[in-house]
Amino acid sequence: MINAKTHLPKVVEINRKWHHIDATGKVLGRLACEAANILRGKNKRDYTPHLDCGDFVVVTNAGKVVLTGKKLEQKIDYRHSGYSGGDVSTPYSKLMSEKPDRAITLAVKGMLAKNKLGNRQITRLKVYKTAEHPHAAQFTKNK
How many C-beta atoms lie closer than 10 Å to residue 136's C-beta? Predict the structure, then answer.
């Protein structure tokens, strides 16, 4: 019998890096899957499903992301304010022209855990409509 122990990283051992994803011409779902895997830490050697060991993700050019098929006309974003009659439905054609960063955030959030762990992980996602972002200093530190 082999006495190999499973290594569980401690919170102080987790080294977070910054990743940049350019959304120009990328499909929304594939982009969201890539970002969700980095946020969860599945690209790391010491990945543990129940620990928050993921990295930061900066997505730029969110306005240039692509939806395949008829999703631009048929897909609808539903949200509710909590008040009676407070439901709001926004078609993705309007959402992608006004707030494409919200569309990416919703897609990534849907691929994370629906608990406190997922809530912590989504806070490390930064989405910007254009190529300009205030996180340039973090990227020079990683290299």
Answer: 12
Q: What is the CATH number of the domain that holds 29?
A: 3.90.1180.10
- What digits encode the pLDDT tens for the residues 32-50? 999 999 999 999 988 989 9
d(CA 17, CA 54): 8
Give the CA distances from residue 61 to residues 15, 64, 65, 80, 129, in Å, rounded to whole numbers and listed in that order. 27, 6, 7, 28, 5
Beta-bridged to residue 139, according to DSSP, are none
pLDDT at residue 11, as a whole number = 85
Number of domains in the chain: 1
- The residues near 54 (Cβ < 8 Å, ≥ 6 apart) are 16, 38, 39, 40, 41, 42, 44, 121, 124
pLDDT of residue 91 exceeding 70, the answer is yes
pTM above 0.70, yes or no: yes
